[in-house]
Amino acid sequence: xxxxxxxxxxxxxxxxxxxxxxxxxxxxxxxxxxxxxxxxxxxxxxxxxxxxxxxxxxxxxxxxxxxxxxxxxxxxxxxxxxxxxxxxxxxxxxxxxxxxxxxxxxxxxxxxxxxxxxxxxxxxxxxxxxxxxxxxxxxxxxxxxxxxxxxxxxxxxxxxxxxxxxxxxxxxxxxxxxxxxxxxxxxxxxxxxxxxxxxxxxxxxxxxxxxxxxxxxxxxxxxxxxxxxxxxxxxxxxxxxxxxxxxxxxxxxxxxxxxxxxxxxxxxxxxxxxxxxxxxxxxxxxxxxxxxxxxxxxxxxxxxxxxxxxxxxxxxxxxxxxxxxxxxxxxxxxxxxxxxxxxxxxxxxxxxxxxxxxxxxxxxxxxxxxxxxxxxxxxxxxxxxxxxxxxxxxxxxxxxxxxxxxxxxxxxxxxxxxxxxxxxxxxxxxxxxxxxxxxxxxxxxxxxxxxxxxxxxxxxxxxxxxxxxxxxxxxxxxxxxxxxxxxxxxxxxxxxxxxxxxxxxxxxxxxxxxxxxxxxxxxxxxxxxxxxxxxxxxxxxxxxxxxxxxxxxxxxxxxxxxxxxxxxxxxxxxxxxxxxxxxxxxxxxxxxxxxxxxxxxxxxxxxxxxxxxxxxxxxxxxxxxx
Length: 626
Fold this sequence. Notes:
This protein is 13% helix and 36% strand. With 626 residues, it is mainly beta.
């Protein structure tokens, strides 16, 4: 019995440790509070993958966690990765580890790409009910849009900025108390959670139009509740569960209702249901089925002809109607009777499994199809012909992303690059300075150029460079370099940004076993390192103002600074007391010299007798010439 108890306890401990393991998270020297989720990436045909970055928003729990005193490193929220799964930007710290949904790039607001997402409500929704967020491409918040109070919290399912850049579409959940006469139980009542949408002004958050399923989608259309379902208190039966909304040029709205297995077209004029696709009351003749779908969007919409895309989950937490989820593209013709719907594209989940919750489908500009299958951040990309070119997923099974997108994007953070430098070595002959540098959100950095200077006021000396190959780059410089900085350079040699000047960190030399001639090593003058190096590459760096680095200081100023640097170095190498004595002696010497010269000059200019007819003042002049 004791053995069994011990085994059970060991298994429980291993389970808990596995749950909180951080081996599947990235860590950074330059951003020590951030732990970004890692990706496993597998390419089948890299050549056919579309260009762009992945936009995902990892979360641990769909609802906000209760505030605790437990320290959690920043790991959830909006993130951008490149096609190799390398981190480009994390907004976890900026948005305080809050859940984020529907994170994407937006091109309809200005000439520069911007970012949008839903900032989920806080644990106390009454205090903070969430926002629609718009960020500049420097990652600064441009707009923070609340939802009108009577429309509830800012729902997590949709924040779609329309192509005109004037309005945005959001989903809405409201609660109503109803009787169950539609289920033949008129004497009973329950709370009902209806689903709807709102169109809001992108500048003022004013609600331009809103719609609610209450009294428009009958209760019997739901596949989630039945005549014998138990009554519920507030918020009530989630009988339709709206999870997406889109709008065409005609002004009509396309919505997806997960718990009716139906996609609806809603009139923008009177709010009536124009047609139903799928479910128990479909208006279409169709040769396919779908259920529990997500992310229904227009691909094209012209009059009576539409092409739409959506993710067919084909399952929920309890049941599945098919054995595999898929991204579907469907052509609808509404000018014929009966109306017709036919599949023109189907992209199965690559592992032939089911996405029981969430997800989305995105048609990329080159025709490729990018799908987020939600759980564990599982994403895939197919060519238009259906060839699978890539799959990826979070290394950790603890995280998911409600949706995932792929966009081309240029990030230009206004904050300087982050850098940390540390010194290591056991004696004067093997000292090195190790640099770590990153720039959260910068997309155009090709190289890092490293600099050191003898003091805070010295001119930086170029000591080396390294290509940017990951979010954080390490570089090792020879010697003990004290005052250091780094510049981010693009492929054209343009300097994009410069870090602040940092002082290198150093250890407790005694505890590290330092065996140098002195108890504490002294920094070196980096100009010594630069004398033997080839500075051609650095001389060709072009700054954003269009000047080359060789134009930065004119010749005379450069010579002056060199003299000052040498003087400073000479003084710095001498002890403080001796320096003070030397300065006093130098001062006294200057004064004495001045007095001697002054006395000599006075004697020279004393009146002398006239000699050979010259004036009295000619004598000192003649003596000076001699």
